C-alpha cells in the first residue's frame, strides 16, 4: 500500500521535468533539428478600425417605413399643450374679427398674453436657423483615401504599404514577432512603429481574431521556416482624429474597397473578421 | 450678631426658647421641617403606570410595523389625467382603402427586410467566431505558452466605452451654450 502511494507522486515528478524538457525544445529558436518550433518569421498585423461617426442613410424601404410610422403616431396621439394653445389663439382671433366683439370681456386678462403661440413658433424657427450643424457628407473628403474623416457613416480599416519579400504590398500594418513577448504586444508594437502614426487604439482582447498561412517562395525557404503564419489582432481607433500627415503610406478603406488592394487569398481570410454591419 | 440679639429678645420675654413656626431662629432656617421636606410621592402605583404606558406604546409601534411597506408607484404606468382630457382628442382621419392596404403591405415588406438583415448579422458573427477559433488552433499548434497568454482575459478592456454614431459629425471647437434645469423628479422612500 505504502509503496503504491509513493510510486504515484514519484511518477508525476518524473514526468514533469520531461515535459519541461520537451517544451523548452519547442520554444527555442532556429538551430534545432526535428522539432517544429515557433519561427521568428511570424508576423502580427493589426486590424485597426475606425467605427462610424454618423448614422447611415436610410434605404428606401426604411424611409417609407419611417414616414408611415410617423403618420400613425400622429393619428393616434392626443393634442399637446402647444397645439391647444394654437387653437385657442386662432379662436380668439376669429372672435376679435367678428363684428359683435366685446373687448371688455377679453381685456380683463389681456395684458398678460401678448405672446401668441405662433410667435413662439417663429422664435424657435429663428433659433434653429441660427445653428449650423456640420455637414454629414463632404464629397471632397470622401475621395481622399488617406484621411480618417472620409465616409463617416461606414467603418474604415487602416492599410499600410509594406515590403514583403521583394514586393511592396498593401497589407494590414504588421511587424515580426520577437522572443519574450506575447503576440498582442507584437501587434501593439506594430501600431506604434508605424511612421508618423500617433494612433490611439484599444485592443480587443488578447486572442488573435484570424490567421493566414502562406508558404514562402522556394527561393527564400530555409530548412526551418517553410512558411509563415500571420495572426491578426483587432483594435478600435480611440476618439481624437490622428494628425494628418501627407505622404504617409496609409489608406483608410471601407470593406467593399478592400478587394482592390489586397491579394485574393489574403482578402478571403481577412474579410471574415471585419464586420461591416 | 443679629441672630444672638434676636434670640436674646425671645429669651428676654419668656426666659425659655419659643419654638413657634413664625419665629423660627435664623440658624435653623436651612434645616426647618417644611424646607427639609423631600418629594414623598413615591407611590408604588407610578412605576407601574409608567410601565403600562411604555408597553402600550410598544404594542402600537409593533402594529404599525406589521403593516407591509407601501409600494413605490411607478410613474410611467400611471396615465396623467391631463392626457385623458376630452378636449384634447384629435379628429381621427378616415383612411382610404388603398392607404390601409398600402400600410399592411409595407409592414410585410419591412418584416422580410428585417429578417434578412438579422440573418446577415448572425452569419457575419458566426464567420468571425470561426476565424478566431481557427486562429487559436493554429496558435496552439505553434506554441503552448503563447496560446495560454492569448486565452487570458484582458482586465483593461472592461469596461469598454465608445460613443455611438450621431446624426451629424461633431463640430470641432464648438462651445455649447450653458443651460439651466430644475430637477423635479419625485423621490419616494419606503
From TrEMBL, chain A:
One of its GO terms (cellular component) is mitochondrial large ribosomal subunit. Coiled coil: none annotated. GO terms for molecular function: structural constituent of ribosome. Pfam families: MRP-L46. InterPro entries: NUDIX_hydrolase-like_dom_sf, Ribosomal_mL46, Ribosomal_mL46_N, Ribosomal_mL46_NUDIX. It comes from the Eukaryota. Keywords: Mitochondrion, Ribonucleoprotein, Ribosomal protein, Transit peptide. It is found in: Mitochondrion. Gene3D superfamilies: Nucleoside Triphosphate Pyrophosphohydrolase. Belongs to the mitochondrion-specific ribosomal protein mL46 family. This is Large ribosomal subunit protein mL46. The gene is MRPL46.
Automatic annotation (TrEMBL), chain B:
GO terms for cellular component: mitochondrial large ribosomal subunit. The keyword Mitochondrion applies. Residues 119-149 form a coiled coil. Keywords: Coiled coil, Mitochondrion, Ribonucleoprotein, Ribosomal protein, Transit peptide. InterPro entries: Ribosomal_mL40, Ribosomal_mL40_metazoa/plant. PANTHER family: 39S RIBOSOMAL PROTEIN L40, MITOCHONDRIAL, LARGE RIBOSOMAL SUBUNIT PROTEIN ML40. This is Large ribosomal subunit protein mL40. It comes from Astatotilapia calliptera (Eastern happy).
